[in-house]
Amino acid sequence: MRVLLLGAGGYLGRFVADRLLADPAVQLTALGRGDDADVRFDLSTGSPGALTRFLDAVQPGVVVNCAGAIRGTASELTRHNTVATATLCESLRRSGCGARLVHLGCAAEYGPSALGSSLAEDATPRPGGPYGVSKLAASELVLGSGLDAIILRVFSPAGPGTPAGSPLGRLADSLRRAMQHGESELKLGGLAVRRDFVDVRDIARAVHAATLSAAQGVVNIGTGQAVRLREAAVSLARISGYTGSLHELDAPPAGPPAQRSADQAVPAAVPHAPYPDGCGAWQQADVRTARDRLGWRARISLEESLGDIWMEAACRM
């Protein structure tokens, strides 16, 4: 099976590439903006015609789209996430390759949810920021394309390679600095937020399963268990050997309650996180569809993911 992977140089793409290369039945071609790509092409600026000609020449059976941006201005996010996906869908429609599309979406497309709830794929998306909006628009383009396509709506990635700007990456970096400077107290904000953390290697397994499946539509990829960020901080401190105390600062609310509809509201007792994902205080995936249609479930514990995150942070000490 020939697989064309877009975004192989990114955080998720690197692990997806490793997983696909481990399958002897897969012939992998990486297309992207970086020098490490087999073929240089920028989805956000390239023409559908040029990509169509490439697809016709390579004849992939599956196209995996891990390309995109997680930060930037609204215009930049739209270009790299939405316009790029529009280019890809149009190219696949024009091409005679008939490839299946595996597109990586994200939980930010859902936006905030009620405390204690599990988000199923039929939940009405209400993204709370430009990133979620740009990713939701991309998913809608895929769903309306008429292609043989599946969208893996990934919850909060964790594990090796976790970006320093992510919640877990920030925690690890804060611990590293505190240990380097001999600080006996570490002050952290936004630890009341709860997220469904799923290891990046498990995400790569889900992508691999999706390339072999006939399932279409949206499929959540998470653990089905929301974890309070403070619990992750305590675990990271223990893993790192930090003996100081963790002091939790109050987190400001994301916005006045009047700006949220009734079914978006999150109980006042759970403060919103200061992270710009627009997902409010709570997110937890309903993962039954992934189990039933892909035969997939998360295997790697958060403890193991945190250990790998700390190992990388410790190498910078």
Description:
The protein is of the alpha/beta class and 317 residues long. It has 9 helices and 13 strands. Strands 3-2-1-4-5-6-11 form a 7-stranded parallel β-sheet, with helices on both faces. Strands 7-10 form a two-stranded parallel ribbon. The chain has a two-stranded parallel sheet with strand order 8-13. Strand 4 (62-65), helix 3 (74-94) and strand 5 form a beta-alpha-beta unit. The chain is globular, with a radius of gyration of 20 Å. Mean pLDDT is 91; it is low at 251-274.
- How many strands in all? 13
Overall 3D geometry? Answer: globular
Oligomer: single chain
Major sheet: 7 strands, parallel
Strand order of the largest sheet: 3-2-1-4-5-6-11
Keyphrases for this structure?
317 residues; alpha/beta; seven-stranded parallel sheet; two-stranded parallel sheet; 9 helices; 17% strand; globular
